[in-house]
Amino acid sequence: MDIEQSLARLGIVGNLYRVYRAAIELGDVPVAMVIERSGLPKATVYDALSRLAQEGLIADWGKPGKRRVVAHDPVILLEQLEARRQMLGEMLPQLRSLYNAAKGKPGIRFYEGLEGVEKALWDSLSATSGVMYCTFAMAEIMEVPGLDRMAAYQEERLARGIDMKVVRSRRHDRQDIWPCSRAERRELRFSPDEIVLGMTMLIYDSRVAIASSKKESYGLIIESEEFSALLKAMFMSIWITSEPVPFIEDMQDDNSSR
Fold it and tell me: Which domains can be identified in the chain, with CATH numbers?
């Protein structure tokens, strides 16, 4: 496969290839020389140079009539290819989810590493129903993603007006934080002692997000009407048997009235 065919596979084809090759061969030169070397009309060359500049393959500068152009080191093609591969790898789970949804299949997105935990949590902020149903494994979530990131998460949740019903396990708690609060749009209950909730799970719209511990280090999002409905039913069965916690605003009113 020659160089023209190879570059064509990267989208540098036809007039774009002729202008790019002329720029590489000539070095730092006036645009007029690129026009002459490529053998193309002036307008065509200027259009190609604009597209090549947007791709970061060439640089041009100067006033009209005195513009110059120089091609960047072709190694940038390899760097761009790697960047696109990484971007596609990040987008692929979502694209496959859309593909599966169109075919009536559940969408499953699996993210490895500590960033994957955050991706699963932050996806819940896309909830359109205005409420999410959650189990919080406090020991794990305080470690990953940590209190600072969870504070940012809560700030964004409140900005989007999303309510949260949360069940936690006293045996699995670590600090007396994130109370039952109207201002923070959070209703909290504690599960019976025999029910230990060891994973963080968020149910919203037709999706379920799961955030693992630092030990297993992954985030998981499952998009399925049936699966989310099942887990919501299971959540509600725990919710109605769990210990209600007074709203912090009510406790403050009681203390101020004494």
Answer: 3-72 (1.10.10.10), 107-257 (3.30.870.10)
